[in-house]
Amino acid sequence: MHAAGPGSFPATRLRRNRQHHWLRAMVAETTLAPADLVWPLFVHDHAAPLPIAAMPGVERLPIEGVVRAAAEAVTLGIPAIALFPATDPALKTADGAHALDPDNLVCRTVHAIRRETGDRLGILCDVALDPYTTHGHDGLLVEGRIVNDETVAVLCRQAVVLAEAGCHMVAPSDMMDGRVGAIRAALDAAGRHDVGILAYAAKYASAFYGPFRDAVGSAASLGTADKLGLGDKKTYQMDPANALEAIREVALDVAEGADMVMVKPAGTALDIIHRVKTTFGLPTLAYQVSGEYAMIQAAAGHGWLDGARAAAESVLVIKRAGADAVLTYFAPVLARALFARG
Q: Distance between CA atoms of 51 and 57, rounded to whole angstroms?
């Protein structure tokens, strides 16, 4: 009889390293810290917060509320926030022109945050037209289709307006072809070489965006577009069936000058996160979207699972897949828990 080798049972018992909390912590391959989180925040032009029914624990905040959240993020060690406006319907137009107003809600919010936090907190601003259009699409709708190049021209102007307001990084989430290179050129021409681009490079046409669209008010607008024959975003957001296409999308954005890339949604694209990170080695972010958040909160609300543990595990595995940071509505809850533990 041959003695068992060092890599086989019973000489090797992998459970030995799982026996104690301190030992599990010591050998953990992936860890989660506040610095791994980005906090998405919704802002509206009203005096009081407004709960978002489909996202328990998340509210539309007035500018002052966003500033307080930003200050808390600094205290908790969260490195950045991402801003999304709930635009007054009276300011929405077919061409989304309010996106270019340097005194719009997002720009005023950025100014207010910068006065409070300076450069201690990163501010990421979404570049897309859906919060500003009457039809709820990310681009210009012309004769029943979303036009690409004309949209890109508007997005370039929006990006410069946001940069001038003081955001640290613009995040084009529209999925138009060629927009990253065009935005980089526009920012550089405006002397804003310092402003980075986080490209939503692999953004899928997902069923998990519903609560977000309610939060920013684009769901109702998309209902208007549905009457025009374009009630979804499948002509520009990616088909969830495709993986190789995601790699091509990321490659194009990297070639055009993206500083970081985003995969969205996160939980249904762990394979894409891993492939993007290992293929390009670029800072890779992932967005745990509103529907993912809502599912966990709904199950926890019914007592079907431990909400705090499920939230932490869901974000940890996104990082394990290869994400350098995760946009998640759980950010403040997780950061508080991690801060208390540390």
A: 7
| CB distance 229 to 144 below 8 Å | yes
At 283, which amino acid appears? P
Which residues are the active-site residues? 203, 264
- CA-nearest of 342, 340, 336 to 39 is 336
Cis omega before residue 265 (within 30°)? yes
Contact 52, 211 (CB under 8 A): yes
DSSP 7-76: TSTTT--GGGGGSSHHHHHHH-S----GGGEEEEEEEESSSS-EE-TTSTT-EEE-HHHHHHHHHHHHHH
Residue 232: is it exposed, middle or buried by C-beta count within 10 angstroms (0-12/13-18/19+)? Answer: exposed
> What one-character-per-residue DSSP string does 291-333 give?
HHHHHHHHHHHTTSS-HHHHHHHHHHHHHHHT-SEEE-TTHHH
Contact assessment for residue 59 and residue 17, using Cβ atoms and an 8 Å cutoff = no
pLDDT digits (tens, 9 = 90+) for 162-182: 999 999 999 999 999 999 999
* Buried b or exposed e, range 5-33, using 16+ CB within 10 angstroms: eeeeeeeeeeeeeeeeeeeeeeeeeeebe
DSSP characters for 103-147?
TSHHHHHHHHHHHHHTTSSEEEEEE-STTTBTT--SSEEETTEEE
Amino acid symbol at 180: V
Tokens of 154: 């508007």
- The CA-based diameter of the chain, rounded to the nearest angstrom, is 83
Going along the chain from its start, the domains and CATH numbers come out as: 32-341 (3.20.20.70)
Structure tokens at 7: 């890599």
Average pLDDT, rounded, for the chain: 95
pTM value is: 0.95
